[in-house]
UniProtKB/TrEMBL annotation:
GO molecular function: methyltransferase activity
Domain CheR-type methyltransferase: start-end pairs: 1-273
Alphabetic keyword roster: Methyltransferase, Transferase
Pfam family, one: CheR
Protein name (record): Chemotaxis protein methyltransferase
GO terms, biological process: methylation
Keyword flag Membrane: no
Amino acid sequence: MQISDSSSRILAGMLEARTGQQLTMSRRWRLETALSQLLRERGIASIDELITILVMGREPSLSTRVVEALLNNETYFFRDRVPFDLLKASALPELARRREGSKTLRVWSAGCSAGQEAYSLAMLFAEDPVRWNGWTIDILASDVSESVVERARAGTYTQFEVQRGLGIQQMIRWFEETPAGWRAAEALRKSVRFQVHNLLEPPPHPGRFDLILCRNVLLYLNDATRRKAFDRLSAALSPDGWLMLGAGETVIGQATSLETDREMRGLYRLKDQSAKAA
């Protein structure tokens, strides 16, 4: 399917205006694949025809569906594994020490996609009941896409999705096979709250988090937008909290308020903050 340059530019502009994400030339090959299902559902013959409908402005909801289709929602349980090993072995035990007085921990999974990252976090806590007995663990998961947030909240995955990153024992323990797919156990679903949120907006309630995961989200932002996102993340971070990014992301040269934690490699903290107990 041929896509005109003007149609590509219009779609790229829509995506950036709504989400801050850039549709670079290297990603434009995804247009046909990303929009094919929507075109079939609506009986639209081509992307150029879709653009004509959008430009006429008669169906505002259609533009929302187009933008959500263009978002990259690739994720899986315990993605890349090493970051979760770091959390389990070092970061979470240290946060438990720092928050021993309040026994309250707030975690934010920003750009959660279909929820696998948030449920992976919930499993880390649930599988260490002795350490977290009596604690209030608030896990917030957010995404700019309303459709993926709805899907994450439902907690139902295909056979392929539930097997990506999970061992057989975890899959059996935390998921139940249903006619609709593999659904997360009720206890797991109740341990995470989901909401639609744009990373470029003010931080969601409660506004200060002890741990923020924002992995593989900032890759698709331009420099100016990425700096704004880092400002938002910094504002949402507790004074001695940590930010975790994706493997290909860094704060170096991009965020004035954040720095690498030399004692907890792979995590970032606010500058000029000592790791004192809260």
